[in-house]
Structure formats: structure tokens, C-alpha cells
## 1
Amino acid sequence: MLQLPMIERAGQNTFFYESLHKGVGDILAQRYFGGKLKWDIEVEVWELPVGGTEGSHIHDDSEPEYGAIDELYIILSGSAEMTIDGVTEVLAEGDSVLSPPGSRHNLVNLGTTPLKILIITDPPK
């Protein structure tokens, strides 16, 4: 049984995605309430270094680690460029974008400071 309130502090459950999807730079990530949520989602905050990229990739059923997932990106601070299926948009603080399953996408930190993003996904069942 879980005790209430459940609190996770800044810096808890952090790790690095090293050259995620062959991107540039390491992404500092904090996963929130991993495995404890009743909702079928995963919640992370990422910090991309200046010039860092997520790496161009596709989430579909051929990808065993992630599968066909939706990814919701919300820019918390900084500026970014997101390309989805060849369409590129510049994003600022407060902007969001949804990358549906099967779309090729990449996120790039355009700013002069680290880029902070909230990522919400629906992990494979």
C-alpha cells in the first residue's frame, strides 16, 4: 500500500541518456514515479545541453525497446527545434508538440542555455 502524499524531489531518480538515438550530447533525465502511477504513462523531465539533440528516430512496432508510442513534449525553458516527418517548427517556453507513433522526429536545443522539457509517453503494454 502506498503512503500519501507521494513526493519526489528534484534530482531524485535521475540518469543520463547517453547519445540517445545517436543524438549529440547526453540528456539528463528525471523519471517521476516510475512504475508507481496507475495511469498508463511515463513522465520525465529532460535537460539537453547547448547544441544537444535527441537524435532522429521512429517509434513503431519494429522497435523492441519502446514500441509504437506517442510522445508529448512540453518546453519548460529554453528554445528548441522539432522536426516531425520533415516538418520543422521552432518551439519556445510553454510550447508543446505531439509526436505520434510511426513518425520520424528529432529535437534540437537551439538556445544558449540547457533546454528543459517535460516528456509524457504511453509505454508499450
Note: Residues 75 and 94 are 5 Å apart (CA to CA).
## 2
Amino acid sequence: MKIKERQTQKIYPGKWEALETLDQKYNQIESAAGFPRKTRYQLVLSSESINILVVEREWESFAAMEAAYEKLMVNPAWHALNAESNAVIKDGYTEILMPLP
């Protein structure tokens, strides 16, 4: 069963250019781990801050997502990149969605 992963992140003001650099690095590491292509959105209109990034991916299955994340968890480059992203990403959360029949 396909599932959708949605990450919502609050970006520090003035850090959108730095986010682009980080994202290119993440793309390389995640692609090598088997992550599907992601779609990114910047919040334009909401009761929330405009400094919101939404990242969505569609996975073939929960098992495929789990296997890819297991590869990341043992990758020192990914952990270093996460530490680097703390200066750009204030906080965030992840949602996993499944389609209804």
C-alpha cells in the first residue's frame, strides 16, 4: 500500500538560501539510500508563519520507507547534515498518511 510522508518545518527568517544548499546535500544522501523524489512547498497564506516548508514524498510501502530510513540512521554524513541544519530549521514534525479506499 502506498503511503505519503509529509514533513512540516519552520525555517528561521532569512535562511531560505542556506536551506537550498542543505537541500542539495540531503538530496544526494537520501537518493543513495533509496528515497523517492520529494516535492517541496513554501507556505504562502495561512494563520501560521510564512517561514514554513512542507516536504512530501510518496512511498511504495511503509516497509520501503522503513528500509530507506534504516540506511540513513547508520550514515555519519546524514547525522552531520542534521546537526548543520539546526541553524536553518527551527523545528518541525512528520506525518504519515495512507489513502482511503
Note: The radius of gyration is 14 Å.
## 3
Amino acid sequence: MRTLIAAAAATLIAAAVPAAAHDVKVGDLEITSPWTRATPPGAANGGGFVTITNTGTVDDRLVGAASPIAKKVELHTMEMADGVMKMRPIEGGIPVPAGETVRLAPGGDHIMFMGLETPIKAGTLVPVTLTFETAGPTELEMTATPPGAPGPDGDGHGHGMKMPKH
């Protein structure tokens, strides 16, 4: 009986703890803190965020992304123009200079999931393939946080983060 109760308790604890994404390494790139936000039912789009550190001596570039959760995935940027926040695709990819760290975060450059097949649910892992010009493709999973939740660094809007320039 004790074994049954312990097993049931372990199952409940595991179900209550959200799934956590793992950091990955591809070539000289370290990809950390992959996350996304849950979306409300019927939402067409969602955003993905990650930190990429190039530990090598050769520049690289994030040139694409894909995920089975969306019909299309693009690299996007958000910027203020005449007091209005505007979002647009990034042409040519996102540079990841040698020896530097690039953060894709809310309010700046990010991964845009367009045409979601189903809503993103908090506590789930979202599979994503990032493609780099030099390092090539790498698969990772993004942790889905509740809507409006800050990212793993506690900053939900990209304030105070260095955003790459194009």
C-alpha cells in the first residue's frame, strides 16, 4: 500500500511541475533558455525566445526555424517607429558574432510561429529546429510558460537586454 501511495504522490508531483527545456550545443554555439508563452484558444500566432552564445572564432547566422506546431515559422523583429510598435520579418537572418551572445526576447528579435496548428499550452515542450549558416540545423524544445509570464531570466519584455542590430 505504501508503494502505491508513494507512486501516486510521485505522479502528482511530476504532473504539477512544468516540463523544462534543455540547453543544447551545436558546433561553437550554445543555445540556452529556450522558451515560449502559452497562447489562448484560437490564437493564430505565438513567439519563441532563446539565448545563443557563439564561443568560437567564426561568425555564424541564424537563418531559419521550423516547428510542427505552426504552418510557418519566421525570424521577426519588433521595433518602435513613430511611437508605434511594429513587427516585421528579418531578411537574411540574425547575426551571431564570434565571442558574443544574442538574445531573442519579447520586444525585440524573436521566432514567430505563424498559423498555429493548436494552441500552445503552459507546461508543455514545443519542438523547434533552428538552422544556422555555419553550425547547421539543431533540434531543441522550448518550455511553454503561462500567458504573460516572464521568461527564464525574469524579464518578459526584453527591457535591459542587448538586442542585435541588422
Note: Residues 26 and 136 are 8 Å apart (CA to CA).
